[in-house]
Amino acid sequence: MTLISSIALRRVLDSRGNATVEADVLTESGGFGRAAAPSGASTGEHEAIELPAGEAIAAAREHAVPRLVGEVYAGNQRAVDAALQAADGTGNFSEIGANSAVAISMAAAKAGADVLGAPLYQHLGGTFRGESFPVPLGNVVGGGEHAKEATHIQEFLAAPVGAPSVSEAVFANAAVHARISELLDDRGIPAAKGDEGAWAPPISDAEAFAVVGEAVDDVASDLGFEIRFGLDMAAAELYDSEADAYVYGDQTRSTAEQVDYVAEMVDEYDLVYVEDPLDENDYEGFAELTERVGGGASAPGASGRGPRADRTLICGDDLFVTNVDRLRDGIDAGAGNAILIKPNQIGTLSDAFDAIELATENGYETVVSHRSGETEDATIAHLAVATDAGFIKTGTVGGERTAKLNELVRIADDAV
Ligand SMILES: C=C(OP(=O)(O)O)C(=O)O
Ligand SMILES: [Mg+2]
C-alpha cells in the first residue's frame, strides 16, 4: 500500500532567504508526504554534508529516486533510509546531500503516516509511546553566528520546567521574550532579532544573564510556575585552536577557565541546561564539566520528564552531531548527560532514532532541535513527541518557529 510511486524535489526558501530542498513523496495508494530540510549556521565540523540545494536535488534525482520509486515502501522507514544511504554510498551524504536525504526521509515518514491515517508522531512512536510532552527551550536572547554585534554566547534559552502543559510552556516562553523587550527598552537598549527570532541586543554576556534572569523570574511569578533558563554556548565558534583558548571579544579564557566560568554561571543563575560549553572535539572538557555540575547521567530508563533537581544538563550538539559513534565515545568518556538531536546533522530519521535510543539506554536526556535556518516544516514536533524527548529546542517567535510550537499544541489537543 505504501509503495513509493513518485518523488518530486524542488528548491524552496528557508527563513534566511536561502534555497533549501523540499521533497514530495507519493505512494501507490495515494498517500502523500511533504517535508523540507533546515540548515545550520553554526554547524559542527562532523555533521553530514549539506550541498547547495540545486546540486543536492540533481544528485538525489540521479542516485536516490530510482532506488526508491517502485522499490521501497514509505511505511518502512528503515528501508527508505537504508536506500538513501546506499544511493549516497559515502557515509556522510556528500554525494546526494544531507539536505536531500533528510527531506526525502521525513516526507516518506509523512506519506507512510498518511496511508495509515495516523498522526506522524504515532506512526513514528507507535501506539504505546509515553504520554509526556517535551519542555520547549525558547531562544530569547542571542548572538554568536546568529546575529552580529550581539552577545558572544549564541543562545539564552527560557526553560519553563514547571509548566503544567505544553501549551502553557509555549506561551510562557513567548511571555519571557516579550518581557525581555520591555526590560531592554527600560534600559534604552535597542534590539534587532537574530536568525531564530531571539532578541540580539548589543550588550555583554553578563548583562544578558541579568536581563534574562529578571525576565524569567518576572514571568514565573506572573504565571505561578517554575521557569529557569539555559544556554547554547556554541563554544566551537568561540574556540581558537591556535591560541588554545575561547575568545570573547577582548577577553580570552583557557579551557580550565572556560570550565570554571560555566560552572560559576550554573551556580549563580541555577542554569538547567548548557549546550556545547566546550569545543566540539573536547570530550575531556565536557567530561570535567559534567562531573562538576552534571550530577551524572540518569539511571537508564529513568522516568520523569524535566530536569532532576541535582543536575544541570550538559548537552552535546556540535560534539555529537546526532551521530551514534560520536555519542558512544562521549558515553565512554563521561562527556555530557544530554544530546541534541537534529535529523539533518545525520541525514535520516532512522539515524536520528538510533542516536535517541542509544542516548536513552545510557541515561542521556534527548533534546530534539530545529536549525537556525528553518522552514514551516513541523516534523521535529512529532519526532520529539514520538520519542518522549525531555526537551525540544525550536525558538519562541517567528512563523518557522511557531510552526513547530503550534504543532505541539495541536498534538496535545488531539487535533492533528
Ligand atoms: C540551532 C543551532 O544553530 P545552527 O542551526 O546554526 O547550528 C544550534 O547551534 O543549536
Ligand atoms: Mg547548538
UniProtKB/TrEMBL annotation:
<keyword id="KW-0456">Lyase</keyword>
<dbReference type="InterPro" id="IPR029017">
    <property type="entry name" value="Enolase-like_N"/>
</dbReference>
<dbReference type="Pfam" id="PF00113">
    <property type="entry name" value="Enolase_C"/>
</dbReference>
<dbReference type="InterPro" id="IPR000941">
    <property type="entry name" value="Enolase"/>
</dbReference>
<keyword id="KW-0460">Magnesium</keyword>
<feature type="binding site">
    <location>
        <position position="393"/>
    </location>
    <ligand>
        <name>substrate</name>
    </ligand>
</feature>
<dbReference type="Pfam" id="PF03952">
    <property type="entry name" value="Enolase_N"/>
</dbReference>
<protein>
    <recommendedName>
        <fullName>Enolase</fullName>
        <ecNumber>4.2.1.11</ecNumber>
    </recommendedName>
</protein>
<dbReference type="GO" id="GO:0006096">
    <property type="term" value="P:glycolytic process"/>
</dbReference>
<feature type="binding site">
    <location>
        <position position="155"/>
    </location>
    <ligand>
        <name>substrate</name>
    </ligand>
</feature>
<dbReference type="GO" id="GO:0009986">
    <property type="term" value="C:cell surface"/>
</dbReference>
<comment type="function">
    <text>Catalyzes the reversible conversion of 2-phosphoglycerate (2-PG) into phosphoenolpyruvate (PEP). It is essential for the degradation of carbohydrates via glycolysis.</text>
</comment>
<dbReference type="GO" id="GO:0000287">
    <property type="term" value="F:magnesium ion binding"/>
</dbReference>
<dbReference type="InterPro" id="IPR036849">
    <property type="entry name" value="Enolase-like_C_sf"/>
</dbReference>
<feature type="binding site">
    <location>
        <position position="393"/>
    </location>
    <ligand>
        <name>(2R)-2-phosphoglycerate</name>
    </ligand>
</feature>
<feature type="binding site">
    <location>
        <position position="317"/>
    </location>
    <ligand>
        <name>Mg(2+)</name>
    </ligand>
</feature>
<feature type="domain" description="Enolase N-terminal">
    <location>
        <begin position="4"/>
        <end position="124"/>
    </location>
</feature>
<feature type="active site" description="Proton acceptor">
    <location>
        <position position="342"/>
    </location>
</feature>
<dbReference type="GO" id="GO:0005576">
    <property type="term" value="C:extracellular region"/>
</dbReference>
<dbReference type="GO" id="GO:0004634">
    <property type="term" value="F:phosphopyruvate hydratase activity"/>
</dbReference>
<feature type="binding site">
    <location>
        <position position="146"/>
    </location>
    <ligand>
        <name>substrate</name>
    </ligand>
</feature>
<dbReference type="InterPro" id="IPR020811">
    <property type="entry name" value="Enolase_N"/>
</dbReference>
<feature type="binding site">
    <location>
        <position position="371"/>
    </location>
    <ligand>
        <name>(2R)-2-phosphoglycerate</name>
    </ligand>
</feature>
<feature type="active site" description="Proton donor">
    <location>
        <position position="196"/>
    </location>
</feature>
<comment type="pathway">
    <text>Carbohydrate degradation; glycolysis; pyruvate from D-glyceraldehyde 3-phosphate: step 4/5.</text>
</comment>
<keyword id="KW-0670">Pyruvate</keyword>
<feature type="binding site">
    <location>
        <position position="275"/>
    </location>
    <ligand>
        <name>Mg(2+)</name>
    </ligand>
</feature>
<feature type="binding site">
    <location>
        <position position="275"/>
    </location>
    <ligand>
        <name>substrate</name>
    </ligand>
</feature>
<keyword id="KW-0479">Metal-binding</keyword>
<feature type="binding site">
    <location>
        <position position="317"/>
    </location>
    <ligand>
        <name>substrate</name>
    </ligand>
</feature>
<feature type="binding site">
    <location>
        <position position="372"/>
    </location>
    <ligand>
        <name>(2R)-2-phosphoglycerate</name>
    </ligand>
</feature>
<comment type="similarity">
    <text>Belongs to the enolase family.</text>
</comment>
<feature type="binding site">
    <location>
        <begin position="369"/>
        <end position="372"/>
    </location>
    <ligand>
        <name>substrate</name>
    </ligand>
</feature>
<feature type="binding site">
    <location>
        <position position="232"/>
    </location>
    <ligand>
        <name>Mg(2+)</name>
    </ligand>
</feature>
<feature type="binding site">
    <location>
        <position position="342"/>
    </location>
    <ligand>
        <name>(2R)-2-phosphoglycerate</name>
    </ligand>
</feature>
<keyword id="KW-0963">Cytoplasm</keyword>
<dbReference type="GO" id="GO:0000015">
    <property type="term" value="C:phosphopyruvate hydratase complex"/>
</dbReference>
<keyword id="KW-0324">Glycolysis</keyword>
<dbReference type="InterPro" id="IPR020810">
    <property type="entry name" value="Enolase_C"/>
</dbReference>
<feature type="domain" description="Enolase C-terminal TIM barrel">
    <location>
        <begin position="130"/>
        <end position="415"/>
    </location>
</feature>
<dbReference type="InterPro" id="IPR020809">
    <property type="entry name" value="Enolase_CS"/>
</dbReference>
<feature type="binding site">
    <location>
        <position position="154"/>
    </location>
    <ligand>
        <name>(2R)-2-phosphoglycerate</name>
    </ligand>
</feature>
